[in-house]
């Protein structure tokens, strides 16, 4: 299972209104981009981490979520910390401060994104996009993709384990061949599964829409006010520093 | 090669979103029309999108000791066409951002342009051109997937260089820096993805599945 999805399903904030969570997380993301990185982005990073902890995401899980994007951000930051001129490649004149500022901003924005992802199951987010005007057909395709991801991922993991047990991952050539054969075997299985589900739906009188029940989660005015207070406080701190 | 959440300045993030929007809207309108005529295809598109997501999580051997993952742009463009790849790719990039924090919401426009627009169209163009000059199918597929992947990497490097021009050498210097750093993994990966796509397309052709997918 994907870590963010597991955490979202078990989150204390799972039943909170999507509007409250979206205002908080997207507001923090906007502040990360708009405010000076220090202290603005740093405050966003701390706030997102504390809110994630409050929502039930443990420190180990939070660090595990942050680590892969942090590694990608670090790679990009290396390029910002150096300059190229007639003398060749050397450390930037500002000593890499601009690169660190971008890295801090990006890490804060990632933390805000993860706060939303680790507290809101993906179908609820798609439901929110649907209420904002996403065409029902596209929302249903997105939901179908989401549901197939876990089935195909399990199948791919099993196939990979079988290939590894038969030494299919030993050596560069075998790894390419195994990955290619895995992909080539997975696609027909995926299409076959979709085809069988289409037949099943047709047998149940499928009329073109895949309706599902969703729990009604009323927006709390107090919750929105708390989010607004948090965002205004961080904005004030970032601008006043 | 995803640009991470928050890495681009707000103006650049908005500009790339505006540039990608017409491609995504055109693809979405086309997809909607298809689904109104054939509603049962929702699940086929769902399976194809999930396949693209899982494919992007496949580990490929890259430079010594490291692994990376295929972009799937070449395979998508050759199997379902570049326009359909744009819309499926957009949804997959959204899920990668939400489920894996790989990419982001503010950088979705930039990532869509490099991986769901430029990459597939480059792969498609190379595949057509290779067919016209009489190259064999396997060579054409290899070149299409490899150059589609390389095109994605070049476009991403250009996007980053536009956002962060070098203080001394401007856009050109910044492009050289980003392209140089990412070349370590991206060039071997592009070759690996080309080979992988040949294996996949050969296996799919043996099962006559490419024709079924395109239909």
From TrEMBL, chain A:
<feature type="transmembrane region" description="Helical">
    <location>
        <begin position="219"/>
        <end position="240"/>
    </location>
</feature>
<feature type="transmembrane region" description="Helical">
    <location>
        <begin position="22"/>
        <end position="50"/>
    </location>
</feature>
<protein>
    <recommendedName>
        <fullName>Cobalt ECF transporter T component CbiQ</fullName>
    </recommendedName>
</protein>
<feature type="transmembrane region" description="Helical">
    <location>
        <begin position="62"/>
        <end position="82"/>
    </location>
</feature>
<dbReference type="GO" id="GO:0043190">
    <property type="term" value="C:ATP-binding cassette (ABC) transporter complex"/>
</dbReference>
<keyword id="KW-1133">Transmembrane helix</keyword>
<keyword id="KW-1003">Cell membrane</keyword>
<dbReference type="GO" id="GO:0006824">
    <property type="term" value="P:cobalt ion transport"/>
</dbReference>
<keyword id="KW-0812">Transmembrane</keyword>
<dbReference type="InterPro" id="IPR012809">
    <property type="entry name" value="ECF_CbiQ"/>
</dbReference>
<comment type="similarity">
    <text>Belongs to the CbiQ family.</text>
</comment>
<dbReference type="InterPro" id="IPR052770">
    <property type="entry name" value="Cobalt_transport_CbiQ"/>
</dbReference>
<dbReference type="Pfam" id="PF02361">
    <property type="entry name" value="CbiQ"/>
</dbReference>
<keyword id="KW-0472">Membrane</keyword>
<dbReference type="InterPro" id="IPR003339">
    <property type="entry name" value="ABC/ECF_trnsptr_transmembrane"/>
</dbReference>
<feature type="transmembrane region" description="Helical">
    <location>
        <begin position="102"/>
        <end position="126"/>
    </location>
</feature>
From TrEMBL, chain B:
<feature type="transmembrane region" description="Helical">
    <location>
        <begin position="174"/>
        <end position="200"/>
    </location>
</feature>
<dbReference type="GO" id="GO:0015087">
    <property type="term" value="F:cobalt ion transmembrane transporter activity"/>
</dbReference>
<keyword id="KW-1003">Cell membrane</keyword>
<feature type="transmembrane region" description="Helical">
    <location>
        <begin position="139"/>
        <end position="162"/>
    </location>
</feature>
<dbReference type="Pfam" id="PF01891">
    <property type="entry name" value="CbiM"/>
</dbReference>
<keyword id="KW-0813">Transport</keyword>
<keyword id="KW-0169">Cobalamin biosynthesis</keyword>
<keyword id="KW-1133">Transmembrane helix</keyword>
<dbReference type="InterPro" id="IPR018024">
    <property type="entry name" value="CbiM"/>
</dbReference>
<comment type="similarity">
    <text>Belongs to the CbiM family.</text>
</comment>
<keyword id="KW-0406">Ion transport</keyword>
<keyword id="KW-0812">Transmembrane</keyword>
<keyword id="KW-0171">Cobalt transport</keyword>
<dbReference type="GO" id="GO:0043190">
    <property type="term" value="C:ATP-binding cassette (ABC) transporter complex"/>
</dbReference>
<keyword id="KW-0170">Cobalt</keyword>
<protein>
    <recommendedName>
        <fullName>Cobalt transport protein CbiM</fullName>
    </recommendedName>
</protein>
<feature type="transmembrane region" description="Helical">
    <location>
        <begin position="78"/>
        <end position="101"/>
    </location>
</feature>
<dbReference type="InterPro" id="IPR002751">
    <property type="entry name" value="CbiM/NikMN"/>
</dbReference>
<feature type="transmembrane region" description="Helical">
    <location>
        <begin position="108"/>
        <end position="127"/>
    </location>
</feature>
<keyword id="KW-0472">Membrane</keyword>
<feature type="transmembrane region" description="Helical">
    <location>
        <begin position="6"/>
        <end position="29"/>
    </location>
</feature>
<comment type="pathway">
    <text>Cofactor biosynthesis; adenosylcobalamin biosynthesis.</text>
</comment>
């Amino acid at each position: 299972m994907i870590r963010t999805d597991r955490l979202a399903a078990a989150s204390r904030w799972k039943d909170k209104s999507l509007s409250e969570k979206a205002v908080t997380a997207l507001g923090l993301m906007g502040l990360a981009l708009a405010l000076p990185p220090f202290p603005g982005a740093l405050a966003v990073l701390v706030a997102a981490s504390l809110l994630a902890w409050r929502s039930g995401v443990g420190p180990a899980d939070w660090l595990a979520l942050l680590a892969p994007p942090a590694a990608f951000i670090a790679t990009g930051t290396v390029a910002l910390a150096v300059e190229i001129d007639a003398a060749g490649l050397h450390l930037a004149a500002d000593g890499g401060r601009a690169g660190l500022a971008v890295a801090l901003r990006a890490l804060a924005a990632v933390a805000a994104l993860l706060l939303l992802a680790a507290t809101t199951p993906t179908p609820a987010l798609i439901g929110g996009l649907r209420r904002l005007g996403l065409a029902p057909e596209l929302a249903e395709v997105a939901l179908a993709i989401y549901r197939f991801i876990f089935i195909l991922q399990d199948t791919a993991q099993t196939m990979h384990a079988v290939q590894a047990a038969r030494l299919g991952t030993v050596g560069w050539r075998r790894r390419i061949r195994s990955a290619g054969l895995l992909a080539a075997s997975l696609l027909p299985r995926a299409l076959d599964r979709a085809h069988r589900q289409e037949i099943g739906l047709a047998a149940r009188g499928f009329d073109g829409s895949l309706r599902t029940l969703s729990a009604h989660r009323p927006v709390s005015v107090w919750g929105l006010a708390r989010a607004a207070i948090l965002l205004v406080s961080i904005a004030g701190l970032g601008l006043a520093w | 090669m995803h640009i991470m959440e928050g890495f681009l300045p707000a103006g650049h993030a908005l500009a790339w979103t505006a540039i990608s929007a017409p491609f995504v809207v055109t693809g979405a309108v086309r997809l909607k029309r298809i689904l109104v005529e054939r509603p049962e295809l929702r699940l086929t598109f769902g399976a194809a999108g999930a396949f693209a997501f899982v494919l992007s999580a496949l580990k490929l051997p890259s430079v010594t000791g490291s692994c990376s993952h295929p972009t799937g742009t070449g395979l998508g463009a050759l199997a379902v066409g570049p326009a359909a790849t744009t819309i499926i790719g957009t949804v997959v990039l959204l899920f990668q951002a939400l489920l894996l924090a790989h990419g982001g919401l503010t950088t979705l426009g930039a990532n869509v342009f490099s991986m769901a627009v430029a990459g597939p169209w480059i792969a498609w163009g190379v595949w057509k051109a290779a067919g016209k000059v009489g190259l064999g199918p396997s060579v054409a597929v290899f070149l299409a997937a490899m150059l589609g992947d390389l095109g994605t990497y070049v476009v991403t490097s250009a996007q980053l260089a536009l956002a962060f021009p070098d203080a001394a050498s401007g856009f050109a210097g910044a492009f050289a820096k980003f392209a140089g750093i990412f070349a370590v993994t991206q060039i071997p990966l592009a070759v690996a993805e080309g080979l992988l796509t040949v294996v996949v397309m050969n296996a799919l052709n043996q099962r006559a599945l490419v024709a079924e997918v395109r239909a």
